[in-house]
Q: What sequence folds into this?
């Protein structure tokens, strides 16, 4: 598994989505991580030092696995880019059929206005 | 805990939660999924992970949040 920088990770993720359009799946896993072992974490906790938690992100298409680690500073930028990639490639999902509450109200208004016209 | 965004299930306005043999909970309500996911993470942040599986050819998106515990 390759630990990449943010931009190479996002580029490779884009390629994964493009490769798996006709066949296959893409898995993305997010997990909180300090990138330190339990022993190291316990030492830091005992010393009263703050542990900086990062977000470990892994992506795979079943053949290739890539990963990156995002810190608090880069998190917002990463989320924005990640969301853009998802919106661009998740085009096969159908929109939910919502029962619009506005439409019946609008219809009533139209009927009311037509009745008024008829009366006059 | 899984939110299965299957297009057919999304189009039906129903909420169902079912538990199978290894305590995997399938949720079709987005709000409930968010609430339960937050609960899982707060209970054990170090062992909770979020997995997304997207399958373009089937038009399926499955979101899973797990704390790696059975039962």
A:
């Amino acid at each position: 598994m390759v630990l990449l920088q943010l931009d190479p990770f996002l580029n490779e993720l884009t390629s994964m989505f493009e490769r798996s359009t006709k066949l296959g799946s893409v898995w993305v896993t997010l997990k909180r991580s300090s990138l330190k072992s339990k022993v190291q974490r316990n030492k830091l906790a005992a010393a009263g030092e703050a542990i900086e938690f990062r977000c470990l992100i892994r992506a795979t298409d079943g053949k290739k696995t890539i990963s990156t680690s995002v810190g608090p500073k880069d998190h917002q930028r990463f989320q924005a880019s990640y969301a853009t990639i998802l919106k661009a490639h998740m085009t096969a999902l159908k929109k939910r059929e919502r029962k619009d509450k506005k439409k019946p109200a609008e219809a009533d208004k139209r009927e009311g206005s037509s009745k008024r016209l008829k009366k006059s | 805990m899984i939110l299965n965004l299957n297009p057919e299930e999304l189009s039906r306005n129903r909420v169902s939660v079912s538990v199978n043999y290894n305590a995997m909970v399938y949720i079709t309500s987005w709000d409930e999924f968010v609430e339960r996911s937050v609960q899982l993470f707060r209970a054990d942040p170090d062992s909770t992970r979020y997995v997304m599986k997207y399958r373009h050819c089937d038009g399926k998106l499955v979101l899973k949040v797990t704390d790696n515990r059975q039962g």
Summary: The radius of gyration of chain A is 25 Å. The interface with chain B takes residues 17, 20-32, 89-94, 96-97, 99 of chain A (CB under 8 Å). The helical segments of chain A are 6-19, 38-47, 75-89, 102-119. DSSP finds four helices and four strands in chain A.
